[in-house]
Design a protein that fits this description.
This protein is mostly beta strands and about 250 residues long. It is built from no helices and 23 strands. It is globular and about 50 Å long. The two termini are about 35 Å apart. About 35% of the residues are buried. Mean pLDDT is about 80; it is low at about 1-45.
Length: about 250
């Protein structure tokens, strides 16, 4: 099963579209404001929607999600879809029953989970103040993996060139698999890294201080768009996009 992900942020709510190429071949969109049973009219807003025709029509797939839920992130792998929520745990979608199920356990933290990611068979959760948690069994057990981190508020988790990166409220860190610890990639105690993307062989960051670029073969980061606070950064069709809190570039 091949899964690709696109995230769009709007004022007041979050919309996420997810393309799944499989025997079900679906798209996913979520709206965190409602929880409506599947047998209610299609016009009634739900939380999560799937589409099998690239967005021409949508089906409510919110079974199993609690009411008044607030979604914080979505993660996909070749086999799984997971969503994180504010104070209501992490959920995995079961394609056999078309239902969201809570993970057996949640990270040992009272902090919100703001970042969720699948990496090399592991499910990772980034918290708002307690660092990163790893699960090797899709949420049955969790363990904190924070050695090397200078800041424990995790904004973003991504994979670039088979390496795991964490965007924090104190800069960018990369995970050393052999030593099982985080290594500074770009540390600044005042730098909030909200987005991370690889574009044409270079790494770009979307931060509270604008965008940063690390050119190939260089150690220095170059600041772009100073004076702007960026919520995220992404690319499509050979173009780079930067999302401020009220404007898209």
């Amino acid at each position: 099963m091949k899964i690709s992900l696109v995230i769009l942020i709007f004022v007041g709510f979050t919309t996420t579209s997810l393309q799944i190429q499989s025997n079900k071949d679906r798209c996913l969109e979520n709206n965190p404001k409602y929880d409506i049973p599947k047998d209610q009219p299609a016009s009634t807003p739900g939380i999560v929607y799937f589409s099998s025709d690239n967005g021409l029509s949508w089906q409510n797939e919110s079974q199993g999600l609690p009411q008044n839920i607030f979604l914080t992130d979505i993660a996909v792998s070749n086999q799984h879809i997971a969503i994180s929520t504010k104070q209501q745990g992490i959920f995995l979608f079961d394609f056999k029953t078309d239902r969201w199920n809570p993970t057996v356990a949640n990270p040992q933290s009272i902090a919100d989970i703001d970042a969720l990611f699948f990496f090399q068979g592991k499910l990772l959760a980034g918290s708002q103040g307690d660092g990163v948690f790893f699960s090797f069994n899709n949420g049955k057990n969790w363990q904190p993996v924070n050695e090397g981190l200078k800041n424990l508020t995790i904004r973003k988790l991504v994979e670039i060139n088979n390496q795991l990166y964490a965007g924090t409220n104190g800069g960018l860190f990369v995970f050393n698999e052999l030593k099982k610890q985080w290594v500074p990639a770009f540390v600044d105690p005042t730098l909030q890294v909200n987005g991370i993307i690889e574009f044409e062989g270079e790494i770009y960051l979307g931060t509270n201080k604008g965008a940063y670029r690390k050119p190939n073969g260089q150690d220095e980061w170059q600041q772009l768009m100073p004076g702007l606070s960026l919520h995220n950064i992404s690319s499509a069709r050979n173009r780079l996009y930067a999302l401020a809190y009220n404007e898209l570039f």
